[in-house]
């Protein structure tokens, strides 16, 4: 059952424009209780639904939480209720470079060498912890999340987005076709390429290119990875097993100037899932 938080003082941290669809709205959380609601949603999705292994602290609080939450922005899709409360039904965690300096490193750096990204001449944004409640996994919520990301990118003049996206389960051979497809068809250019840390590196080149049907392979990808690829995104070299979250991770990088006008028009440039 989704929990509601009071609506009386709900206000966004930043003005991203009027991003609504019926009773749904996307905004950046400004209240601790809304961030806690997003952590509870993450817990339900990552731990209860997908089999991640919580720490004792997480289990007691029934919240997915770590040290990054305090310095990140939390993009939320909320549903307004008739009793003036809101339900958090979708979330994304966003970390800009200047925010990262408060903690000293990006989350992705625990799995990948991100040296090329940190040397990028422009504003960078790490994205992760994306999830949507099972009852709300529909086009409207996904569109609002993407529109919110786009509005945030425009507000802070982000030139490059990056992060981790996930396949469920820790056996890469179960995703051999998808991983090989990403390796052969969507590998990032060297100047933007994240490389899995040596001690965590899992080869994605599990099948020869001519053994892959690109259309079928693309169709098999998780929705969030499809979304990044449609934005013109790339993957890094090597996958990483994350036993805590029961996932096989790949790294993603998206140059925002590669996003097509058609895509921005679809989701609204003026306004505009993974465990990383």
Q: Into which percent range does the helicity of residues fall? A: 25-40%
CATH class: Alpha Beta
State Rg: 18 Å
For the biggest sheet, the summary is: 10 strands, mixed
Q: What is the number of E strands?
A: 12
Estimate what percentage of residues fall within beta strands: 25-35%
In CATH terms, the superfamily is Gcn5-related N-acetyltransferase (GNAT)
What does this structure look like?
The protein is 29% helix and 25% strand. The protein is α+β, with helices and mostly antiparallel strands. It has one domain (4-259): 3-Layer(aba) Sandwich (Aminopeptidase), CATH 3.40.630. The strands form two sheets. Strands 1, 2, 3, 4, 5, 7, 8, 10, 11 and 12 form a ten-stranded mixed sheet that branches. It has a two-stranded antiparallel ribbon with strand order 6-9. The chain is globular, with a radius of gyration of 18 Å.
